[in-house]
Amino acid sequence: MNQPAISxxxxxxxxxxxxxxxxxxxxxxxxxxxxxxxxxxxxxxxSGKLDSKTVVAxxxxxxxxxxxxxxxxxxxxxxxxxxxxxxxxMPSEFQKMGKALRKVGLGRYVDEMEVAMNRAAEQAATExxxxxxxxxxxxxxxxxxxxxxxxxxxxxxxxxxxxxPSLRRRYQPIVGEKMKxxxxxxxxxxxxxxxxxxxxxxxxxxxxxxxxxxxxxxxLFNVLAQEEKKIRIxxxxxxxxxxxRVFAEQ
Length: 250
Known about the structure:
It is a single chain. By secondary structure, this protein is an all-alpha fold. The protein has one domain (5-248). Helices cover 68% and strands 2% of the residues. It contains eleven helices and two strands. Strands 1-2 form a two-stranded antiparallel ribbon. Helix 3 (52-75) runs antiparallel to helix 6, helix 4 (95-103) crosses helix 5 (107-124) and helix 4 (95-103) crosses helix 9. The longest helix is centred in the last third of the chain and has 28 residues, at 154-181. It starts with a strand and ends with a helix.
């Protein structure tokens, strides 16, 4: 049986379009992919009505493209290392060691560790794609409208609440393997060995796998939140012809 049409107030329609195009602004390669969906929205907007199936389908499409962009950004070389906002820094437990090593001219060991931690996070980030898409596939009508009517980070909170446990389970073994392949354990051992040659110091202890996994997940969701907020609140971001056509219908 067909679901009844849902009348949407103009402001809610505007929010719908805003979320439907979430994170698409600077992805010109995605325009062709969503052009069909946008055309359908434009046709439906003329009647002032959107059926619930269309609302959910449009939101899911936008979120798929948006999460893909986040994964591509964080998994790229320097996706973490080159971004000051999400770069995984030396853990607080190692701050004393890092300062001491730099004082005696062995700061390269600290730098090696920082690079290796961030490389491990970048290489693990590709795991997020499938987990995000599973969360999108299971999204209900209530979930969709909660995101539509939510604040600037509603979609990001939805993803974090639905995906963080799964992401953590998938990230940890990959992070451990990547830390080996990028030389993090070797860098850590060299740093500790050099540090322990300094008189009267205590050997630092840390679960590197958990620390890098936590940093990788925090960075992933920070990037997603930034992209979501930018599209929600920045009219200047509507830079493509596609966006101009869509917002002209409002």
